[in-house]
């Protein structure tokens, strides 16, 4: 009901409680109650005795109705669970994903304004204050578990494209799961899945975008390696628009991936790669491997040419400074 | 308390309620209540006015106290959740595994006397009536997600060894996840895991053993390809002893796997393999591949030599008749 009222408030500069009550078939008191609810969400609504209600401004929140208004995807983001704060959107998403039996739909989003225990890869902390975009996408692709790298890189390509479209900022993909601007981290991706030997039960893609965060607010130890879109462009970005653009891009690439058409995505991934052509050291858990990043293959693995000339394939790892 | 009483009942032929009450520091009425509880679980206990209680027989149930009595593992099976019936032990185990935060211990078991919706690989049904052994093991190994095949094969080797030790029956491993006796399925393994790019969050190994099931009770469509230990040996097996033996074997091999010492397990896996040396057709989801199974490699993948002479590596698939 609040959503319906919002629709009319957005259409007209002024609309009276009486008219709203008539259109929606509810009492004027009920209209008033819904207006209070919207105000509590952060909508600024004035009321003039003669002219009626007027929507002055919308909150800068990733509210489902804000995201879904004008969202042109087929299924990504058609269902959104929104929280002012969560420990971690991935944790909540994984709990929901488990109950596929209860018909969680493909492309459902879990969004939080901030995370109290945001996570990066390998259990690392991810700083997630208000102003960023913290979300998880729940998917049930009929793909092999080995697609996990491809899913992560596909998400990265969609992020780079969405950032470019909304802010004109060029960003780059640091294999396997980060997006950088000027060598500094602006987005991170944490893909988690439940699998059998040769079947994915569910995938949860956690995405963190440092949107409107001041660099001075970052913890000291990550300040020099982190950046935000606001910091880079010198102005706040519309988080809603950026998210909508990302979801649209993501759906486009994900559709390709589901058809196993990764080649064209890979081409873009290589084009935007921050990693290729560099001499790097990669921590693969058991050891650190040195070499030149010469390619990313059709599985999303990094091909490293070691100093002895041998080329090896790395499924995942951390590129060290 | 019921467990303590059981301990004394097992130690002595007769023990009076009075003595039990004194040893345990409870009232005779409390002793009587615990005896009733044990009777309800299926323990046959007689009481003689002069001599006291006598344990006549134990139920043929996989009760935690039965399994843990004499179980010589370090940590596998130290915690057991037991259910007369579950939809699927893996489903329950996955729910528990998700909440690692709540300190589910490595090696916890979920056991059910029967499953109403037992599952095999790729969502296939698994017939799970009373008399079989249906369990899931929850683990948190620090291994790469690509270890899923190795974990499954390791479990298979432990099953073959346990069956041999308890029943003298020789069984074989049908790659990637079944155990056969005389070409017929006697055990199935369903490994599921939650992963990141290069980290396992949790593993749930679902194990089904057709122990004391009459072949005529199997659904018609799987009768000709299924067997049970009872059917093969002509007599009932002690499910408790078999399970204890399996858990001990499993822990031994799993310890090796965690130290990344798969070679020796692989050697046994090949020795017990039903698949190697055979000309087979493998359904890998997208297509069916024909060839000779010539090897299982260090990752647990099957090496198939195709008719054109090319050898390919298959991570997982279904071997067709």
Low-confidence runs of at least 5 consecutive residues of chain A: none
Number of domains of chain A: 3
CATH top level label of the largest domain in chain A: Alpha Beta
Question: Element order, helices and strands of chain A?
Answer: HHHEEHEHEEHEEEEHHHHEEEEE
Tally of extended strands of chain A?
14
Distance between the termini of chain A: 53 Å
**Largest interface, per-chain counts?**
A-B, 30 and 30 residues
What oligomeric arrangement do these chains adopt?
homodimer
Supply the CATH architecture of the largest domain in chain A.
2-Layer Sandwich
Reported by name, the CATH topology of the largest domain in chain A is: BirA Bifunctional Protein, domain 2
| Major beta sheet summary of chain A | 7 strands, mixed
Number of helices of chain A: 10
* Envelope shape of chain A: elongated
Strand order of the largest sheet of chain A: 3-4-5-9-8-7-6
How much is the radius of gyration of chain A in Å?
22 Å
Helix content of chain A: 25-40%
**Secondary structural class of chain A:** alpha+beta
Q: Give the DSSP E fraction of chain A (strand runs of 2 or more residues).
A: 25-35%
- Quick one: CATH superfamily of the largest domain in chain A? Bira Bifunctional Protein, Domain 2
Mean pLDDT of chain A: 93
